[in-house]
Amino acid sequence: MKMKKIIKLKRFVILSLLAVFTFVGCSEEFLDDPKNTDGVTADVVFGDKATVEAFITGIFRLFRRQYTSVDSAGLQSIYFARTIKGNDLIQAPSWYLFDYAHENREPTYRRTVFNWDFSYDMINQANTLILGVTNSSALDDNAKKEYIAVGKTLRAFYYFQLALDFCPNLNTNSSISRLPIYLEPATGASEGNPTSPLSEVYSLIVSDLKAAIQDLTDTRIGKSYINKAVAQGILARVLLVTQDDWSLASSLAKDVYGGNAATAVPSSSYGTGFLDMTDPEWVWAMYQDAVESTYYYGAPANLTDHLSAPAFYKATYVNTNFVATFSATDERNLFFDLYGSSTPYREFITTKFSFTLEEDFAIMRKSEMVLIDAEAQYHMGNEGPAHDLLFALQSDRDPNAVKSSNTGQALLDEILLERRKEMYGENGVEFFDAKRYRLPIDRDPVHRVEIDLPADSELFWLKIPQKEIDANPNIDDSINS
């Protein structure tokens, strides 16, 4: 596959850079101590396009790096932790069992500490990239614009993850102050910043993405990298939360999927394991091969796949009531009773994802953008176009689909259900939508742990890690009270 060959050409450069940059303290190595002969200085890293691009590639490799445990392993573990908190999927007593039971939010717990540390570490990487490129005397202005735009997109993306994980819904409490904002890389002498109101965090996210969109191009090395469409798609997601510019959300989504929903949504992934980024419907993905593999850390496939050899944990099942929302002719109806178990929650598994040790991970797809456009059209009062967009996806997935005639709240409910059906297992869409719309999550009795989340429940966000409170004199001890 051409994508894998391109990335393999850079492997030795990437690994050599990662060997001398520590993940947390890379800025300390080459910004504070440029004479350190054991490291790589900023002059070297940001001295030409090849090394800058290798540094960026290294950042993207960290998206799926193996960290402390199976459920703390990069972006996909953040996404799957959200996924398993809903009603549609059911987790056996295996990895992610505490996320599934909503027993994961205390300030010393692994989920809380990992999601915080990982996201802020990625922000630090982005800030290191922005500063290094800005100060470089070797890069031309066009290169600087593009690399800084990549850094701003990364920074916005991970501040968005922090806001989703550690704060209430924006429109519930925009003044709540829980996240420090950092616009420069950390150094050994850095003191933690005070927290900022959630409205300011979102203002930074939006401004970073809008600035990046202006300077990014359509071209990139491969789908693991950021281009204009990726930044546009992230901003479209953010606007689903802010809910203050549906027109922009629609135009951004259209730009990403190309404007023709019928030609955008066909996917080669259903029924083939959802594992190959060459699918033209995928916009952004985490690349993986047998050499650069997350091995058994790779959610969702390592948990949802019960059939492949090797199939590691066989831990995730599908709610029978969710299965019932798929018609028999829907190509996404990949559920069956494998075990014939008398245990209600173990009735259905899904073959959507295949575990192969080199499956790619989808981060963004065109079908999501079509559904964002449909939702935006609904909110702008354009129910006819919303029906058309919804049917473009439904009719591709199911030849017997019938065009919706729903109006009002029923139409919005149908769009949100279609988001769940299209993206279950991928990025926590059910939890994301419940939080932003201030909806409850009411689990069916079939669940192994039947816990219901009222709208705006504190279980929709995590506490601030105790280690951050202890280390940062500008965060008050009462922040988790």
Automatic annotation (TrEMBL):
It holds the Pfam family SusD-like_3. Residues 93-240 form the SusD-like N-terminal domain. Residues 1-26 form the signal peptide. The keyword Protease does not apply. The keyword Iron does not apply. Keywords: Cell outer membrane, Membrane, Signal. Its main location: membrane. It is found in: Cell outer membrane. One of its GO terms (cellular component) is cell outer membrane. Belongs to the SusD family. This is RagB/SusD family nutrient uptake outer membrane protein.
